[in-house]
């Protein structure tokens, strides 16, 4: 009953209590009413108090009382405890009447209190208004006298009644009282001035504001902005016109300087990103249809190294030097050089038939910046990497254009320095699709859309099963691990993959169905994860998987990172077998084998397809170091035959079937 009461009241009046709080409040009141109905002798006072409480809660309208009477009148009589005798019926009716009386009395008191409060507020407001008027008149005179703006009080007849000192400074002479204001207006502004005053006097607006010129005492003109508004007397009748004169001469200079500063970089004096973006709109519209424009997004290589070793001050001087050199290199072209953020710069070139190609331009820039400059006695030389958009469509959005240039820059800087990359629309479309998938990947993993599949590792000499590799699988992308690595999700997801794989291996081993080496490939971020060893240790402990039955593959490219090398050595000491992924069969790759505890290497797919005799010649060198060689991505019997003949040990790939879930994989190999 209390919940129904609460619900019906909430539908007609909003109070500060939440629904739960209101339920509790009305439940307590209902308990009090029931107790009163049972009391001997019957005392209707609690009903009256409930009526007063309703008003205190804010239910002072008639619908609130009506809802209460309906609920209590029907609800109390419907209760089993009050249906047994007519005496309770009489008490309920009497109680409802008492509640109504209490409600009405409390409501009357509340209304009287509101009226008294309003009367006190009105009296105070009138008193404050009189006091404020006296204070405002004194304040106006003080403010107007000290204001740097010209202030004039003009009669309705157009003659000057009062003026402050600043108006005398603006026009070069103090205006005499009684002077007609129109005499101070330059001839070129008379028409605008008359129209403004007519508008003000006709009360068609609160104020009028117009730029115009005043006649100075020396015969010159002062540029000002006049603002005119009516002043009224105590009876609300127009009495004077207040005219404010803003001196625009210094304001115009200040606005020009502020605008210049807002569009230029303070350190280098170059246009900033905002100015550059606006300029792009104009450039794209007027670009030569045949040659178009070229946009370059530049980034200094190793600038952080300079700042960290020599300090921020040296870095700032270096940025100023780079800005000067970029302007000098591009001075022969119709171009704009801008500084974006930090050590990033932008260049837009309006191409002509004589404009050098992008490769020449970048070579010239890096050759010029490669000449040492001395900062605080340090001879510094830098190179730049660049993302380039050549001849974009004329209707492209400038912001989108800069985004694509930045995307190309990130490609250029990937593990390289002093390089440039041309933007390709097809790569951008692929990148956007991958980014969209990476964003939704956490949800897909949580919902079970991402799973684990298994593929066989075959012994090339016998064709038998040499091991099993566990992989992440997602129907929406065949680059699941790559996307997870780029988004950072790979750390928890990679640990989950190892846990699922080792758990499955133990399950098959305990049932006597499959007892093979299990492999998992680690990504770049997994390999350099400071918690990798603890993650693997925890999984092996949870699943009781023997460390020697697990093979973890690391990309060769991470071995130069100290954390990855430490992880590799510690895992090997634990008994985990270590393999190297993307092994290129080059001298540098072979050098790692003699320095690290590696048991196997995986040759990447591009080398597998190439079937290069030079790669084949290095297979014995791998074997001499006691390392197995696995070819990754065998697609045909021809490839399998070739790599078998050159001495490869193991193989994976589509030739041996698609990766399958645990059940299907076991059925296929059984």
UniProtKB/TrEMBL annotation:
CDD domains membership: EAL (cd01948), GGDEF (cd01949), PAS (cd00130)
InterPro entries from the UniProt entry: Biofilm_reg_signaling, EAL_dom, EAL_sf, GGDEF_dom, Nucleotide_cyclase, PAS, PAS-assoc_C, PAS-like_dom_sf
Annotated ranges, domain EAL: 434-670
PROSITE patterns with a match to the protein in the record: EAL, GGDEF, PAC
Ranges for domain GGDEF: 291-425
Name this polypeptide is given: Signal transduction protein
Species, as recorded: Lentzea pudingi
Coiled-coil region: none
Gene3D superfamilies linked: 3.30.70.270, EAL domain, PAS domain
PAC domain mapped to chain residues: 208-260
Pfam families from the UniProt entry: EAL, GGDEF
Lineage: Bacteria, Bacillati, Actinomycetota, Actinomycetes, Pseudonocardiales
